[in-house]
Specification:
The protein is α+β, with helices and mostly antiparallel strands. The chain has one domain: Alpha-Beta Complex (paralog of FGE (formylglycine-generating enzyme)), CATH 3.90.1580.10. It has 8 helices and 13 strands. A 5-stranded antiparallel beta sheet has the order 1-2-5-13-8. The protein has a 4-stranded mixed beta sheet with strand order 11-10-9-12. A two-stranded antiparallel sheet has the order 3-4. Helix 2 packs antiparallel against helix 3. The longest helix is centred in the middle third of the chain and has 17 residues. The structure holds calcium ion. The site of calcium ion (CA) has 8 residues, from loops.
């Protein structure tokens, strides 16, 4: 049956077909009555093609980027969730275990839990976009990232940093570095294709999505009515929670249960150093002082929707501009001085900053940082999305 045929099929026809399957073997005598009833109830109601074609939750598909590189997306059905965090959660985040800085405003913009709807299903990248995937984009399009433009820079970790003092204030080890970019984020190790791409701005992330949309459309593979874009803030938090009730992390409230599936600062040793990151509060090592390969923890690192590294890994840019009053059900944009939102925390963060509800307003749309990356969404176009 073609898509066009499906589009014009009536709801009554769908109901009748389902009833044949469900009722005939055991109660054949009931079938005619139910079929007539269904026809009366549903007569003339058009069924939307998108609804009938909705894939099962967790359906995965590979998107070919060319050059032997692919990107996997996973289907997430529409649904509701509680956006935000309770006062108790925010108190934990700024306490001795959470390790976030008390007295700052970072936790306040999360807002108290409120029901939020994601009205339409969408596909989400299984992982953060990797270095190898981003390289395909740059090779094919010739794109130059914001950090690589004349006068550009990226905020990167300074290996000469000598700021860890276990009892005094920690100095800031992140510095603006001209010449650093996604190609060289100033790691103390090679920037492998399997790592999440970093030092990419909100502008760069959207350019990647636009390239992918164009590429897939030209190949005749782009599903009708959908496009690649950044997820909205609501889509991201809904996806992060993985269909579970509200909690600190996607697996629950216990930090200890994050062992073996959460890339945060933990007690890892920095390259060439013999002491730990002083704000590390997790009682275990995640195995990486900086980034880990995407989906490194396998099934254990995937949430209820099958998404990897939603907490920790790298901060993930979403489509919305930051509203200090809290995230929105519909994407939020401002006219002047936009601060795009990042979600989920990063490999160098304390646990309190790697929760599902954490949100951060980034300096500008061109700001590039070796803690920030993104993941793609394949969904309906978003009303009000800025052209640039
Ligand atoms: Ca992440």
């Amino acid at each position: 049956m073609s898509a066009n045929t499906q589009r014009t099929e009536t709801r009554s026809a769908i109901w009748s077909r389902k009833m044949v399957v469900a009722s005939y073997p055991s109660r054949p005598g009931v079938l005619p009555v139910l079929a007539v009833l269904a026809a009366v109830i549903g007569a003339g109601l058009p069924i939307r093609a998108a609804e009938e074609r909705e894939p099962a939750q967790g359906t995965a598909k590979q998107v070919d980027l060319g050059g032997g590189v692919s990107l996997e997306v996973v289907y997430i059905p529409p649904g509701e969730f509680l956006m935000g965090s309770t006062p108790e959660e925010r108190a934990w985040a700024t306490g001795i275990e959470g390790g976030a800085t008390p007295g700052t405003s970072r936790e306040k913009p999360e807002g108290d839990p409120r029901p939020t709807r994601v009205k339409h299903g969408f596909w989400m990248g299984r992982t953060e976009v990797s270095v190898g995937q981003f390289r395909r984009f740059v090779e094919e399009s010739g794109y130059v990232t914001d950090a690589e433009k004349p006068g550009g820079w990226a905020q990167c970790f300074d290996p000469e940093w000598d700021g860890y003092h276990f009892t005094t204030q920690v100095m800031h080890p992140w510095k603006r570095m001209p010449g650093k970019s996604w190609r060289d984020p100033n790691w103390a190790f090679p920037n492998e294709d399997v790592y999440p791409v970093v030092c990419v701005s909100w502008n760069d992330d959207r350019a990647f999505c636009q390239w992918l949309t164009k590429r897939e459309r030209e190949a005749g593979r782009l599903p009708e009515g959908l496009e690649y874009r950044l997820p909205t803030e609501a889509e991201w938090e809904y996806a992060c929670r993985g269909g579970r009730p509200r909690a600190f992390f996607w697996w629950g409230d216990e930090l200890e249960a994050g062992e073996g599936r959460l890339n945060i600062s933990a007690i890892d040793f920095l390259p060439g150093r013999t002491k730990t990151w002083p704000l590390a509060k997790a009682p275990w090592s995640d195995g990486y002082p900086f980034v880990s390969p995407v989906d490194h923890y396998g099934e254990k690192g995937r949430n209820g929707f099958g998404l990897a590294d939603m907490c920790g890994g790298v901060w993930e840019f979403v489509l919305d501009h930051f509203d200090p009053q809290g995230g929105h059900e519909e994407a939020h944009f401002v006219e002047t001085d936009p601060h795009p939102v990042c979600r989920g925390g990063n490999y160098f963060d304390v646990p309190g900053n790697a929760r599902c509800a954490v949100r951060l307003g980034i300096h500008s749309t061109s700001y590039s940082d070796s803690r920030d990356g993104f993941r793609v969404c394949l969904g309906r176009p978003v009303a009000g999305e800025p052209a640039k």
